[in-house]
Amino acid sequence: MNDLLEKLSNARGIAGQEGEVRAILREALTPHVDELTVDSIGNLIARKGPSHGPGQNRVLLAAHMDEVGGLVMRGNADGVLKFRSVGGLDPRILPGKRVRIGAEAVPGVVLRAPHGARAGKRVIPLADLLIDTGGAGGIEPGDMITFESSFEQFGRLLKGKAFDDRVGCYILAQLLEGRYPCELVGAFTVQEEIGLRGARVAAYAVEPDVAFALEGTVADDLPRKKDVSPTTELGKGPAISVMDRSAYADRHLVRLLTQTAAAHDIPYQIKQPGVGGTDVGAIHLAREGAPSVAVAVPCRYIHTPAALMDPADVEHTIELMRQVLANGAKSEE
Amino acid sequence: MKELIQAFCDVFGPSGQEERIREAIGEQLAGVVDELRADRLGNLIAIKRPTGNGSVGRSRSPSVEHSDCGRFGKRVMLAAHMDEIGVMVTHVDAQGFCRFTTVGGVLPNALIGSRVHFANGVEGAFGLEGAPLPRNAVIADKMFLDVGATAKEDAQVQVGDTAVFRSGFGAVGDRLFAPNLDNRIGCAVLVQTLRELANTPHEIHAVFTVQEEVGARGATTAGYGLAPDIILAIDVTATGDFPQATPMEVALGNGPAIKVMDRYMIAHPGVRRWLVNTAQVYDVPYQMEVLEFGSTDAAAVQISRAGVPAGAVSIPCRYIHTPSQVIDYNDVRNAVRLLVNALSGTGDSADLTAWSADK
Amino acid sequence: MRVACRIVTSYCRPPGTDIFSLLQELSETPGVSGQEERIRAAVSGHLAPLVDALRVDALGNLIGSKRGASPAHNRVMLAAHMDEIGLIVTRLERSFLRFAPVGGVDMGTLPAQEVTVHGSSDLPGLIASRPPHVLSAEERQKPFAQADLFIDVGLTAAELAESVAVGDFVSIRRPASRLGKGQASGKALDNRVSIVVLLEALRILQSRTHAWDIYAVVTVQEEIGLRGATTASFQIAPAVGIALDVTFAEQPGAPAEESLPMDSGPAIGLGPNLHPKLRALLVSTAERHEIPFTSEVLPGHSGADAWAMQVSRSGIPTALLSVPIRNMHTPAESVVLQDIERAARLLAEAISDLPDDLSVLALDDH
Question: Is position A20 within any domain?
Fold first, then answer.
C-alpha cells in the first residue's frame, strides 16, 4: 500500500536495538517537522506546530518502534544458539520458523531440543529451543533475533511482521505531515514491549496536555464456539481502548474520539476491555498525570512473523486522528 | 460516624468511575477544609491550612533534605482511596449475557452467588458455564453476567460499563458489614479526622485517590504534584483472627494498625514511631501491622521524586475483596483519635531524620 | 597487568581494610531492607574519607560526592545497594516467633539456619522445624513451607514478649570466611561485594584525576523493588549512571546461558536496560587496561538498580557492572576476591576515562 509502511514492517528492531527503524523515520520525517531529536534511551521525538500558548494543547502522539524478538544468550562451536525472548513471544509458534540474527541479518532456523521429539504433547519452553545457523560465524551474545517475513498483499489484507507497532509509526509519520491548531509532539518510543520504558521518559520530558498512543492491537476474530468478544475485528475501523491492563482511558478523550468518528462517518470499535497494555500506561502517570487514550489498528496474529491487517482500518485511523487534531484535540468538558 | 460510613458504602464508585463517590465525599467536606479540587486523574484533594501560629517551614524544592524541618509544620499528605473493586463488561452476546473482566483484585470464587449493580441501576447475577455451582476453582473466563436481558438489543449495559457488589451495609453491635469497606472506611476516617482536627501546625493535604485497586495510579500522580514531606495512607489491612488464618497479629477490635511493612513498602521508622508514641501518650489502643500481601497508596508516594517518609494507619478488616467485609467500629473511632492527636501537633512530632541520623 | 600492580601499590590502604577484611566486616553487619542503619553506619565509616561530602536522604540512601576536575561538573552516579534479604516477625506464638520474608528469600535454605532477631537487643535464634522422625512418609517428601517454620530464641513466652515485637527484623547469622584459594563465603555478598568494589574504586581514584563529579550512592531497599535507587536517581539527576551488583556465577545445575564464569573479571551488562555507547566505553576501557571481563546478556529486566536509573526523569544512560557469585540469596554465597579487585579497577579507570563531551553518548543513527 505504501513504501514507508513496507519499509517499517521489514525493518528489524527489538527493544534496545531500534536504530534501523529510527533511521527510516528520521529520513521520512525530516522534510515535515520543525525539530527531530533522539533522547538518552533512544526515543525519536518530532516536534511541530505553533508554540505552546494559552488555550492550545500540547498533544503527544506516541507509537513504539520496537518489535518482539529475541536475544542471543550464548553461541557454541557448531553454530547452535541459545536465546531468550525480548517482549512476549509465544513459544508454541516458534519451532520451524526462520529468523534473522544480528546486524548482518544472518539466517537461522528455530529447532526443538531433542525432547521435542515428543512434539505436540506439551509446550516446549522457550529456554529449551535452539536456533541453528548452519555453522554461520559472526554471531555474538547480545545480537538481536527477529522473524524473517515479507510484506505483501493477502487478498484485501496486508501481511507482514511487526505491525505492532510499525503501523502506529506509519500513522504517526502520516499525521506529522499535516498542520493542526495545536503543538504536536510525535514520540517514536523504544522498549514498549519490555515495560513501556521509552514512553515513560518521553512523557516526563514532553509534559503533554493530552496524549494518544497509536497502536497495532490484537484481533481475535477467528471462529469461536462461544459467543465472546473478538477483542477487535478487522475491517471495523480503529479500536479505541477504554480500559486495559495498563490504564483507564480518559473518558473525555474517548468521547471526543467516538463523537468525531460519528460526525465524519468513520467506523470505529471499542476494544475488549482488560486486554493488553500500551504506552498510555506510562504516559498517563508521568509527573502529575496526563489524560490519555490508545487508538489501534486491529491485527490478526500479532507477535508472529505474519500478521494481517486491513488497509482500510489504517486509513480510517489516520482520518479519525486527523479530524481530532484539526480541532486541536480539544474535548468538550 | 456510622451514618457517614453507611453513606459512603452506599455510593457507587469502581476504579476508573469515581465521579459519584467523589461528589459524595466532597459534599461532606464543605466548610471543613480551606480548599477542595479534583486533579487531572480525578483525585479529590482537600487542603486544610495550618492554624494559629503554625507555619510550614519547608523549602518547596523537593530535592532538599527533610531533616531541617523538625520543629516546624509539615506538608502532610493523607491518602484514602475512594475506588472499589468490581467487574467491567467486555462483550454482550446475542442472548444478552455479558462477559466481563475484573477491575482490581476480584476473586472469581467470590463472585459465585453474589450480585452486582451498574451505575444506571441495572442488576447483574453471575452465571457459570454448564452448571450453577462450580466443582473446582472457577476462572472469570468461564463466567458470565445475567443482566436481565433477553437479547443483545435489549441489554441495558454496554461494553466498558462497570458494576460493583450489590450487598448492602449492615451492623451487628459494633461489627459493621459492607462489600466495600475497602476503602470507604478509610474515606470516612479521613473525613471525620478533618472534621475533628480543630488545630494543626501542618498543611494537610487530604487526598481521596482514584484507581488504587488497579495499581495506586491516582496516588502516583497526586504524590508527584503535591511533593509532601510525609505520606500517610489510610486503608484497610488483613487480620489473623479467624479460623486457620495466615499467621498475623492483627485482630478486629484491638485498635488501628500501624504499618511496619507490606508487600511493596517498609514504613519509615520515624513515621512509625510518631504514630506509636501518639497512641501511647493519648492512650489509643493500637497494633503493629506486617502484611504479606497487598499494599497501599503510601507505597507509590514513598518513591515519588526524591522520596517521601511514608507510613499507614490501617483499619483491620476481615474478608477483604469479597462482597462481605467486616470491621469493628471501635477500631474506626480509635483510628480517628490516633490521627487527630498525631496531627494536632500537641504531642510528639515525626522525626524524619530517623533514616538519616546515623551518619 | 603491570599497570594494575603499579596502581595497587600507589595508594595507602588503612590497616584491616584488605579486600577480604572489608568484605568480611560488611558481610557480617546486618542490614535487612528497611532496617539498614547498621550497614549504613559501617559503610559511612569507610566512605567518608574517600569523598568530599556525605549525606543520607529521605529513604536512607547514603550519598557520597567527590568533585571532579572539570568545570563542566558532569555527574556520574554509582549505585550499589546496601540492603540484604531477611525476615520480619509477624506474630508471637507461645515462646516462638512467626515470620515473613523480606525480599526474595528461598524458604528451602532456612530450616536449621541460625539467625539474629533484632528485638530490643540482638537475640541469637534459629529456624525451628519439626523433626522427620515424627512426620509421615508423605510429609517428609514435601519441602518446608513458611507455615511450618518458627524462630526459636530460647526465651519463655513472657520474656519473648518483652524483648521482641511484631515488625522486628531478622537477619541471617553467618560469619564470613575464606574458601579454597582466593574465594570468600558468607551471607549478603549480594551486594556487599559491590560496596567493596565501590570503595576500592574510590580509593584508586584518590590518586587519580577525574573530570566528572562522582556521586557514590549506597542504596537502600533494592531487594524489595529498587526503591532507593528510584528516588536517588531522581534527586541526583546524573548524566550517566553505573549500577554495581552481583550476578549468577556458573555452578552445576545452573543454565549455562544465564550464568557467568568466576575468576574471569566482572561482567558488563548488555541489553535494552543498558546504554550501548556507555557499555562500549566500559569495554574499551577494560581492553585498554587489559582487565579481564565478560558480557552478561540481559534480555529484559536486569533485576538491578540500573533498571530504575535508566528511566528516571527524562532518562539516564546506564551501565551495569556485576561480579559473579555462587548460591545467590542463600546464607552461603561465594565470590572470587580477585574479581572484586578487577571490577574496582575497571570502574576507576572507566570513571577517569569519562569524556567531557557528552555527545559521544548520543544515539544518533547517521
Answer: yes
Q: Is B156 within 8 Å of chain A by CB?
A: no
Interacting residues of B337 by C-beta distance below 8 A, sequence separation 6+: B282, B284
Domain assignment present for A155 = no
Instruction: Determine the straight-line distance between the first and last CA of chain C, rounded to whole angstroms.
Output: 37
Mean pLDDT of B112-135: 91
Amino acid of residue A267: P
Residue keyed to cell 514531606: B229
Residue B247 has a pLDDT of: 87
Cis-peptide, bond into residue B183, ω within 30° of zero: yes
Question: The whole model's pTM is what?
Answer: 0.92
Half-sphere exposure of A234 (CA within 13 A, CB side): 16
What are C181-211's pLDDT values in tens digits? 999 999 999 999 999 999 999 999 999 999 9
Q: Residue B328 corresponds to which amino acid?
A: D
- Contacts of A122-130 with C-beta under 8 Å, sequence gap 24+, read A123/A91, A123/A92, A124/A91, A124/A95, A125/A91, A126/A83, A126/A84, A126/A85, A126/A89, A126/A91, A126/A94, A127/A82, A127/A84, A127/C255, A129/A83, A129/A91, A129/A94, A129/A95, A130/A80, A130/A81, A130/A82
Examine the pLDDT at C327 and tell me if it is beyond 50: yes
Distance CA B185, CA C28 (A): 45
- ipTM rounded to 2 decimals: 0.91
pLDDT tens digit sequence for B209-231: 999 999 999 999 999 999 999 99
b/e sequence C170-198, b meaning 16+ C-beta within 10 Å: bbbbbebeebeeebbbbbbbbbbbbbbbb
Instruction: Kindly state whether residues A52 and A73 are assigned to the same domain.
Output: no
Pairing of strands A80-86, A69-75: antiparallel
For residue A99, pLDDT over 90 is answered with: yes
Three-state DSSP class for C309? Answer: helix
CA distances (Å), C28 to each of A69, B60, C32, C136, in order? 43, 40, 12, 38
The model's pLDDT over C61-108, given as tens digits with 9 standing for 90+, comes to 999 999 999 999 999 999 999 999 999 999 999 999 999 999 999 888
- Contacting subunits of C (3+ beta carbon pairs below 8 A): A, B
Which CATH number covers residue A125?
2.40.30.40
Supply B238's cell numbers.
488483613
Alpha-carbon Rg of chain A, whole angstroms?
20
Tell me which chain A residues have a C-beta less than 8 angstroms from the C-beta of B211: 248
Smallest Cα–Cα separation from B342: which of B181, B209, B230? B230
Closest CA to C90 of C19, C166, C36, C160: C166
Those of residues 219-278 in B touching chain C at CB distance below 8 A are 240, 246-249, 260-261, 264, 266, 269, 272
User: What is the rounded distance in angstroms from the CA atom of residue B359 to the CA atom of residue B356?
Assistant: 7
CA C123 to chain centre: 25
Average pLDDT, chain B: 91
Task: Assign domain C86-172 one CATH number from 2.40.50.140, 3.40.50.10840, 3.30.2390.10, 2.40.30.40.
Answer: 2.40.30.40
d(C-alpha C22, C-alpha A161), whole Å: 53
- The residue segments making up the domain with residue A103 are 69-147
Indicate if A97 and A236 belong to the same structural domain: no
Cα(C208)–Cα(C350) distance, rounded to whole angstroms? 12
CATH superfamily membership of C2-84+187-357? Zn peptidases (3.40.630.10)
Q: Would you tell me which residues 21-40 of chain B have a C-beta closer than 8 angstroms to some C-beta of chain A?
A: 39-40
Q: Which domains does chain B have, with CATH numbers?
A: 2-84+180-343 (3.40.630.10), 86-165 (2.40.30.40)
By a Cβ cutoff of 8 Å, what residues of chain A touch chain B? Answer: 227-229, 242-243, 247-248, 270, 272-275, 284-285, 287-291
Could you tell me the CA-to-CA distances from C123 to B239, B345, C88, C152 in Å, in that order?
27, 36, 14, 10
